[in-house]
Amino acid sequence: MLSYCHLSYNGELMPIVACGINHKTAPIALRERVVFAPEKIPLYLSDLINNENIPEAVLISTCNRTELYCHTDNIEQAMDWFLKQHAVAEEVLRPVLYCHTNEEAVQHMISVACGLDSLVLGEPQILGQMKEAFSESCAAGSVRTTFHRLFQQIFSVAKEVRTHTSLGACPVSIASTAVNLIKQVSERALNESSILLLGAGDTIELVLRHLKNHNPKEIIIINRDREKSKLLATQYEGESYAFSDLSKILKKVDVVISATASPTPIITKEMLSEIHQSLILVDLAVPRDIDDAVRDLSHIKLFSVDDLKTIVQKHLHGREHAADKAREVITEKTKDFMSWVHAIDKVASTIRAYRKQMEGLCEEELTKSLRQLHQGEDAVEVLTGFARALTNKLLHLPTVHLREEVS
């Protein structure tokens, strides 16, 4: 059954809303404090549906952004909810919080899926993250007709952009950028380097794919779930160590690339104070895996996601034209979706008006019949007359329209 939950208050469409923070509005020191923990996403969505009266919602939290997409007639309420979910003072978070509605919101969401709003222009990983967020919302019951249609449009446009523009021809990711950064700042070649990868998720696997082309001297993988690290180590000809071996391994490697889901730093300044060799650390996690105080150590070079911006800018040349073509597609498809929304709204408005009219006719005939019964008229005749009169009135308007169509 179609759900017309997008219909609005005060005779207008209930807004589609996209609000949040990203790498353009907030530094990593703030972004790492504003995250939706993956294991708690169903609880957040349940709260939105049951306590905030928001019928449709999707939450996404990545290293570059934390955003709420929702369908609500109270935009301020949605923004206030977002602000209250994090241990950050409102006066700190509100100035960096953006909010888009309706066409702007849809255009923003599609741009995110296409990688046009990413730190690395056109990076493909965000599409998978959005699909996962959508799937979680479907499972939580926070997706209805409008958002189901919207996200199918989003994924379709993202596929079209990657297929028909050069953004998809040579995809660049945070992982590939990290590897390029190491090549630039390291004093030794990658094929002479021992590299520790901390984590075993999608980002680390992407790093491994890019490292494979450079034949590092040694690849070591450490993850809390040892089985995952063993699987990756086997696949990419590396070695897997237990998490308890981390301090020991740090003393023998040249490079560390980290991307875990830990809520607190895993590598601290104290751990690295005992290390004397030069060490390059690239932290791709948000919240960060490596304590920022590590930067104080002279033999350490630490880079966070935000530090990759400089190298990213060098890869923008030649991709902006493709991005412009992608934006043209996004603008066109956004208008198509909003046209569908307005068409559905028009149909629903017509149904509501017709229903109200029919209820009025029914009430009129019922009042007339009750008066006849109180006057002592025969009940069978009264009910028969009521049924005949109501049927004629209910069929009158559709009959007139049908005759007009064939005349």
Could you explain how this protein is built, in words?
The relative contact order is 0.10. The chain has 407 residues and is of the alpha/beta class. It folds into two domains: 9-170, Glutamyl-tRNA reductase, N-terminal domain (Beta Polymerase, domain 2, 2-Layer Sandwich), CATH 3.30.460; 174-308, NAD(P)-binding Rossmann-like Domain (Rossmann fold), CATH 3.40.50. Strands 7-6-5-8-9-10 form a six-stranded parallel sheet. Helix 5 (102-113) packs across helix 7 and helix 5 (102-113) packs across helix 14. It contains 15 helices and ten strands.
In round numbers, the mean pLDDT is 89
Note the main sheet: 6 strands, parallel
Whole-Å distance between the termini?
33 Å
Strand content: 5-15%
CATH H-level superfamily of the largest domain: Glutamyl-tRNA reductase, N-terminal domain
Helix content: 40-55%
**Broad shape:** elongated
Instruction: Tell me the total number of β-strands.
Output: 10
Q: What is the string of SSEs from the N terminus onward? A: EHHEEHHEHHHHEHEHEHEHEEHHH
CATH architecture grouping of the largest domain: 2-Layer Sandwich
Task: Provide key terms for this protein.
single chain; 407 residues; alpha/beta; Beta Polymerase, domain 2; Rossmann fold; 2 domains; six-stranded parallel beta sheet; four-stranded antiparallel beta sheet; 15 helices; 10 strands; elongated; disordered N terminus
Short summary of the structure?
By secondary structure, this protein is an alpha/beta fold.
